[in-house]
Amino acid sequence: MKKYFALMGLGLIALSCNESKKVVAPAAPSEPVLIDVTALESNENDVRKYTNTITANELQDMLYVFAGDDFEGRNTGDPGQKKAAAYLVNYYKKLEVAPGNKGDYYQIVPKTFFRKGSDLNDSENVLAFIEGSEKPEEVLVLSAHLDHVGMDSKGNVFNGADDDGSGTVALLEIAEAFKQAVKDGKGPKRSILFLHVTGEEKGLYGSRFYSENPVYPLANTIADLNIDMIGRNDDAHLEDNNYVYLIGSDKLSTDLHNVSSAVNAKYFDINLDYRYNVKNEPNRFYYRSDHYNFAKKNVPIIFYFNGTHEDYHKIGDTPDKINYPLLEKRTKLVFATAWELANRKDRPVVDKAEKEE
User: Fold this and answer.
1) Rounded to whole angstroms, how far apart are CA atoms 90 and 99?
2) How far apart are CA 134 and CA 214, in angstroms?
3) What is the 3-state secondary structure (H, E, C) of 97-125?
4) Coil, strand, or helix at residue 259?
5) pTM given for the model
6) DSSP label at 139?
7) Is 75 helix (H, G, I), strand (E, B) or coil?
């Protein structure tokens, strides 16, 4: 997740990966809306079967590679980040999940797209695609950022295991579950784009590039489920191994929020903490990860987040500190929500409109 600092009095947001960030103490969590789970349309046996293919052991195995020292902190445009992108491509090839950019897994983000003076090189988003069986023109996006902040002057690696190695490997496990369903003849009715974006830490550049140069029309994009940091516990939940923050689920679509809540109520009963979803939330997390570039285009979004912790953007964000059983549970929640959205009769209705700030 990108850092920011506020220019008080001007109401502006500026990007700074070198500035320390103070997290404002959150308010008490908002009460979730009671949802009728009978409104869900997916086959329960299918949901449970493919959800159970997602395991803590597989997530851990992948994360120790993706957030290992060999990828040198995955700084945008640097060799380590490109190694990480190649790792993702090779994974999708092994799964036999198709490339998502007209026969290519890469969507190049040219260095001219980045902020002038940033000294960043060309970088790339990674796109993989499972075509829907009945409504292939409608696309559900699952996103996570593949980059992190690199190394310091002494050669210490910022591994970014939670930020956002956790979201990245979650997407890979979800893709594997959907691909197994395809092999079993139960593939999703709508298409699914697995979108690994670059440049998030520099200012949400990869997702902005995709939203301004979409491979699949945004008018046909039914939602974006964005995962950014779901592998740890924050200070507010040190003893709670059954929570996740949800941000933005109700900002654009009541339908999306209701589906999300109903899926959780039926299958998981995770504590969905909405404290960072309130209006005028001082940390502004809603604006600080890749989902926001979709929300600005009025594509409904959900942002899954575990909150910040003592190793946020520090060299201590390593794979050994990940809570893998909790990462598994959260990944399963995203998968089951995606399954429901991809297989429902109707896409979520956008009954609200985003006003860009």
Assistant:
1) 11
2) 22
3) CEECECCECEEEECHHHCCCCCCCCCEEE
4) helix
5) 0.93
6) E
7) strand
Q: Which of 204, 226, 224, 196 is nearest to 107 (CA)?
A: 196
Q: Is the Cβ–Cβ distance between 301 and 253 less than 8 Å? A: no
Alpha carbon distances (Å) from 64 to 61, 146, 243:
6, 14, 23
User: How many other C-beta atoms lie within 10 A of the C-beta of residue 122?
Assistant: 15
CA dihedral sign, ordered 235, 145, 151, 19: negative
> What count of residues does the chain have?
357
- 157-180 b/e with 16+ CB inside 10 Å = b? bbbbbbbbbbbbbbbbbbbbbbbe
Q: What is the pLDDT along the chain (357 residues), one digit of tens a residue?
A: 887 533 333 333 333 333 333 455 555 555 545 567 778 999 999 999 999 999 999 999 999 999 999 999 999 999 999 999 999 999 999 999 999 999 999 999 999 999 999 999 999 999 999 999 999 999 999 999 999 999 999 999 999 999 999 999 999 999 999 999 999 999 999 999 999 999 999 999 999 999 999 999 999 999 999 999 999 999 999 999 999 999 999 999 999 999 999 999 999 999 999 999 999 999 999 999 999 999 999 999 999 999 999 999 999 999 999 999 999 999 999 999 999 999 999 999 999 976 654
Provide CB contacts within 8 A for 4, sequence distance 6+.
13, 14, 15, 16, 19, 21, 284, 288
CB-based contacts of 300: which residues, under 8 Å, 6+ apart? 222, 223, 224, 251, 252, 253, 255, 256, 348, 350
Q: To which residue do tokens 């040190």 refer?
A: 238
| Lookup: tokens for 2 | 């990108």
**Alpha-carbon distance 353 to 59, whole Å?**
36
Q: Which two tokens stand for residue 126?
A: 């990674």
**Cα 58 from Cα 169, distance rounded (Å):** 9
